[in-house]
Amino acid sequence: MMRNYYYLVAGLPELFMEQDRKDFSVNALKLEVKEQVHPSDYRLVEFLHLTYDNDNFLNKLLDRGLEFNELGSFEKSIFDDLDENINILPQYMQDFYYKHTGKKRSADEPDEEDDEPHDIFEAEKLPEVRFLENFYDLAINQKNSFLRYWFSFIRDFNNVLTALNCRRMGVDPALHLVGNNWLTEILAKSQAADFGLKRELDYIDRLIQATDIPDILERERKLDLIKWEMSEELTTWDYFNINFILGFFVRAGIVHRWLKLDAKTGEELFKRLFDDLRASYNLAEKF
Q1: Lowest mean pLDDT among 61-65, 122-126, 176-180, 191-195
Q2: pTM for the full predicted model
Q3: Rounded CA gap, 2 and 66, in Å?
Q4: What phi and psi, each to the nearest 5 degrees, are found at residue 57?
Q5: Can you tell me the distance from the alpha carbon of 279 to that of 76, in angstroms, rounded to the nearest whole number?
Q6: Which range is most confident: 7-11, 17-21, 64-68?
Q7: Per-residue model confidence (pLDDT) at position 107
Q8: Predicted local confidence at residue 280, as pLDDT
Q9: Which band of pLDDT confidence, cut at 50, 70 and 90, is reported for residue 263?
Q10: d(Cα 248, Cα 277) in Å, to the nearest integer?
Q11: Residue 109: pLDDT over 80
Q12: Cα 248 off chain centre by
């Protein structure tokens, strides 16, 4: 049975509004939550934010030259010297690091023989795709229901988005899709405008419409709103437990992103999150 955090959830609107929009800090909110939830529940919050650590890890390992994402759980100094700090990072990162670099975990470790790929589809996938496959395999097998459903949604959402972009560029999507399941098979083969997925994915029409928007910021806003609403849907009947808090952090991350990208949209989403928090608490009190 999940633990309930009545006082924490009741205080989230005030805690949220105490933040200065210009210096809005998800990390500060994480610290507040860490002090008030069970350690095992806070580990779920940290797992949710591993996506940012994944970006920082790949950024350094593949020398992408992108800006460090501060929303992860590991400091920049850890990634600045991967050789020295790799054993501090999660196991799936360690496994990928050693396989990608060909380095040994220890001096007396025997050389590994590379397994022959099962098929060309698997053999030609990009390193970052292979890495994400390892991560999502871990994520969708988590015991927590929100994490399972959320990461399954994000994987599928991003795969559809990838397939649409590949179609526009005339590129075979198969090698860029994360995972190998019924959805990736359809996305790789279907010629239908919506890949014949209207019944399976109720958001696909909105996703396709969003990708047709020429303005980059407006397109990204529409895509993030789909994620926002899914995080709400997944916690419809969760009022005071860790799932509610996880959904809150998904939306707080979106607010953080937009306060940096576009002040007007960021303000709107900031207010929306506050209003949603207050409305959720008021609804919960009725029950």
Answers
A1: 122-126
A2: 0.88
A3: 38
A4: -65, -50
A5: 37
A6: 64-68
A7: 62
A8: 59
A9: confident
A10: 8
A11: no
A12: 13
Helices (H), the chain: 6-17, 26-34, 39-48, 50-61, 76-80, 82-85, 91-101, 120-123, 127-139, 145-169, 182-189, 204-211, 216-233, 242-261, 263-286
List the domain boundaries for the chain.
Answer: 41-115
* Paired tokens of 119: 């098929």
Query: What single DSSP character describes residue 174?
Result: G
**Long-range Cβ contacts of 250-255 (<8 Å, 24+ apart):** 250/48, 250/150, 251/276, 252/16, 252/26, 252/29, 253/26, 253/49, 253/71, 254/224, 254/227, 254/228, 255/24
Residues 6 or more apart from 232 whose CB is under 8 A from it? 247, 251, 276
- For range 254-281, the mean pLDDT: 78
**What does the block give as tokens for 176?**
């860029």
**Half-sphere exposure (CA, 13 Å, Cβ side) for 187?**
30
* Contacts for 40 with CB less than 8 Å, ≥ 6 apart: none
200 with 153: CB under 8 angstroms?
A: no
Question: To which residue do tokens 């650590």 refer?
Answer: 53
Residue 122: which region, alpha, beta or left (left: phi > 0; alpha: psi -120 to 50)? alpha
Q: Two tokens at 41?
A: 């529940």
**Residue given tokens 């437990």 in the structure block:** 241
Tell me the torsion sign for CA atoms 253, 254, 255, 259: positive
Distance CA 202, CA 249 (A): 23
Q: Which residue has the tokens 């949220």?
A: 16
What the block records as the tokens of 112 is 């590994």
Name which of 61-70, 193-202, 262-271 the model is least confident about.
Answer: 262-271
How far apart are alpha carbons 50 and 56 in whole angstroms? 10
Cα separation, 74 vs 60, whole angstroms = 13
